[in-house]
Amino acid sequence: MPANTLPIFTLTPNATTCTIAAANTARDGSGSLVTAFTAGSNGSRVDFITFTSSQTTAAASSARVQRVYLTDTAGLNPRLISEVAMSAVTASSTVIGAVQTITFTNGLVIASGQIIKVSQSVYASAADNTDVIVRGGDY
């Protein structure tokens, strides 16, 4: 069932999660990428992508770059669409871990079959685990 048409709104919420636990220094879409979001059968809209340090114990994380890629409608040929820097921090019971959010002001509208993939530039230890939440909706 298609979404509303005038004005168009998403029909079904689509919030997905994944964890990045490997390094990928490439910026061209090659190497290890993690699938973070898959568009619905009528296409989707993404509003926010949040990266959160998710280490389980107090330890110093590495400074790193989180990257977001968008594939073509066959789920192939990822292209870099955004990136953010995560600062090094030692999370503890009194210090929060690093958090970065990418906001797509007017929404990132993606076609059926397109996939959002993510990566990070550094992974030295489990202190660099990063949880990713993609919030949007399907048309």
What is the secondary structure topology, with strand pairs?
Blueprint lengths: L11 E9 L13 E5 L5 E10 L10 E7 L8 E8 L12 E12 L4 E6 L9 E9 L1
Antiparallel strand pairs: 1-8, 2-7, 3-6, 3-8, 4-5, 4-7
What key phrases describe this protein's structure?
single chain, 139 residues, mainly beta, Jelly Rolls, 4-stranded antiparallel sheet, 47% strand, globular
Secondary structure: number of strands: 8
Strand order across the largest sheet: 1-8-3-6
What is the number of helical segments per DSSP (H or I, 4+ residues)?
A: 0
Which percent bin holds the helix content?
A: under 10%
Sheet having the most strands: 4 strands, antiparallel
Structural class: mainly beta
- What is the N-to-C order of secondary-structure elements (H for helix, E for strand)? EEEEEEEE
| Percent of sequence in beta strands | over 45%
N- and C-termini, Cα separation: 8 Å
Uncertain regions spanning at least 5 consecutive residues: none
Q: How many domains make up the coordinates?
A: 1
Whole-number mean pLDDT = 91
Description of the molecule:
With 139 residues, the protein is mainly β. The protein has a single domain (26-138), classed as Sandwich (Jelly Rolls). It is 0% helix and 47% strand. It has no helices and 8 strands. The chain has strands at residues 12-20, 34-38, 44-53, 64-70, 79-86, 99-110, 115-120, 130-138. The strands form 2 sheets. The chain has a 4-stranded antiparallel sheet, with no helix packed on it. The protein is globular, with a radius of gyration of 16 Å. The N and C termini lie close together (8 Å). The mean pLDDT is 91.
